[in-house]
Amino acid sequence: MWLPFAPEQWLPYDPTKSQCSIDPPRFTVWLSIANRTYRLAREAECLTVHLLRRDDRALADPFGGETGDEADRFARVAWRPGEADSPVLEQVPIGSTGRIEGRIEGGDHVGFLLAPVAVCPPIEGGLPALLRYRELRDLEPGHPA
Hints:
The chain has 145 residues and is mainly beta.
């Protein structure tokens, strides 16, 4: 599960990230226009995207099952400001930060085209078991998409 962050922000439920260019490297993060992350991302310079491991399920619960409009989820986790003050979770070592290059309207979601400006260091021993959407089907979203 990917968790995108904007400066001063709280995450959406079930975001989608995809690579959309190899050269130059680019990826897109889709955010629901109904959530706080989207509202903050509209004004952000960068977004940070974290890749959750299976061991990170405890992070998926508050960030996916609650809305940032009602709860300060960052008060419960260790984080630091990254590029352009985009939050970086201390306990999640896999992720990247991208500078917002453009936006794509997509109905009830908007895609943020990102150019990588910071990436996690190489992972020794290969990629760990990742938290997958199918493992979160029982998670009730903090608000409708």
